[in-house]
Amino acid sequence: MPALVLLGAQWGDEGKGKATDLLGGSVDYVVRYQGGNNAGHTVVVGDQKYALHLLPSGILSPGCTPVIGNGVVVDPAVLLSELSGLDERGVDTSKLLISGNAHLITPYHTTLDKVSERFLGKRKIGTTGRGIGPAYADKINRVGIRVQDLFDESILRQKVEAALDNKNQVLAKLYNRRAIAVEQVVEELLGYADPLSGYVADTTLLLNNAIDQGQVVLFEGGQGTLLDVDHGTYPFVTSSNPTAGGACTGTGVGPTKINRVIGILKAYTTRVGAGPFPTELLDEDGEKLRTIGGERGVTTGRDRRCGWFDAVIARYATRVNGLTDFFLTKLDVLTGWERIPVCVAYEIDGKRVEELPYSQTDFHHAKPIYETLPGWSEDITQAKTFDELPKNAQKYVQALEEMSGAPISAIGVGPGRDETIQINSFL
Ligand code: GDP
Ligand code: IMO
Ligand code: MG
């Protein structure tokens, strides 16, 4: 089993960090392939809690090499502060490798992210304000700055000049902001060259060689399927491809080398930021899910919007990612509800629809059709096997599996590494 992808099946925050950390001890590499420090992964190891943003969650497993792939956008200031935060807590970060082809998030990207959101007003996306969209826009527009540019001052200066030429016009004339001085940016970026130089590598070559030699590589997605710029609820999405294909373009490893794709799936649904969310609960149940589930963003501290499980979305995630397995998380949060509604299909303009509609207008009109399953009241956080779950919890999992189109191979019953029921091995 040389290569597997682990990704979010919903709108992010499914518990990818915990799942990656769980596998970290059994894999040789954990590779982030897209996104940046918009991600927020909480990992609980024993009595220690870690909040990771840019670093792969495998960094907490001593035997594993963490890699930031070419598809990631790297804010060097955030990276260095995350590294020093972990160093202070005694985590060995020396093995980290960063692709020289990864693009940088600079202060002008963060500024543009914030001002453009303000400019959108009511139509804003609700971004994390971390400069993600503007950095990817520059990459696609071919005016991005890459990690490798830090090591050639003359190229760096030319690229910053090219990038700022147009942006300064936009900042000054459209957003009424002060222009940004080229030299100031160049100087700041050059300051990152030394501290980062030891980490930069040809990660594509390295990962392909590792897979060819039978080493185990885990690709860790940020965000989730419905936040994918191609397959998500556009325009209320992030600016990268968290779906399985992103693992290939974001690392330079071909699809024929990937054996398994695991979708991390919360036992209910959450979303942060704006955009459609058919099963959203604006009542007491929503508040209860938020409180019991601790649904508050790790990155921006915003409350997460909460709703019931949506099987239409789970089926869609199976389809667009070619999922081989699900890891169902946070089942314990549902303990104590007498009955648990699950969305099995949508009603759109009077018609029953089983698959996620491709039209944004239809999706905005989608009303959930619920089936209600009986709940359970027993504490499940100590369960180690499927059989130890109360019968109604077993039935809930089996119903979700039938509706979602791929086997549920693991179940999370708490935030800790050990609070997991493994049904089928991932490796
Ligand atoms: P990520 O962005 O997908 O890594 O997810 P986040 O870390 O943003 O959010 C998931 C939250 O749920 C974190 O606080 C985890 O510690 C926690 N968590 C993960 N799995 C479980 C689980 O099975 N049960 C409970 N109660 N919490 C979990
Ligand atoms: P993890 O990896 C949940 C959301 C933002 C916003 C939209 C675009 O922790 O699951 P961006 O800053 O990326 O341009 O914002 O995407 N978003 C996330 N929501 N979890 C995340 O990451 C997210 N990363 C971005 O809230 O709606
Ligand atoms: Mg998160």
Structure description:
There is one protein chain. The protein has 427 residues and is α/β, with parallel strands linked by helices. The protein folds into two domains: 3-93 and 202-422, Adenylosuccinate Synthetase, subunit A, domain 3 (Adenylosuccinate Synthetase, Chain A, domain 3); 103-195, Adenylosuccinate Synthetase, subunit A, domain 2 (Orthogonal Bundle), CATH 1.10.300. Helices cover 33% and strands 20% of the residues. The protein contains twelve helices and 20 strands. The chain has helices at 16-24, 76-88, 107-120, 132-140, 153-174, 182-197, 203-212, 244-249, 284-293, 311-321, 360-365, 391-404; strands at residues 3-8, 29-32, 41-45, 48-52, 65-68, 73-74, 97-99, 103-104, 200-201, 217-220, 260-266, 269-271, 305-307, 309-310, 325-329, 339-348, 351-353, 367-374, 408-412, 420-422. The strands form five sheets. A ten-stranded mixed beta sheet has the order 9-7-5-2-10-1-11-15-19-20, sandwiched between helices. Strands 14, 16, 17 and 18 form a four-stranded mixed beta sheet that branches. Strand 19 and strand 20 (420-422) form a beta hairpin. The N and C termini lie close together (6 Å). The mean pLDDT is 96. The structure holds guanosine-5'-diphosphate, 6-O-phosphoryl inosine monophosphate and magnesium ion. Guanosine-5'-diphosphate is lined by residues 8, 12-18, 39-42, 44, 294, 298, 329-330, 332-333, 412-415.
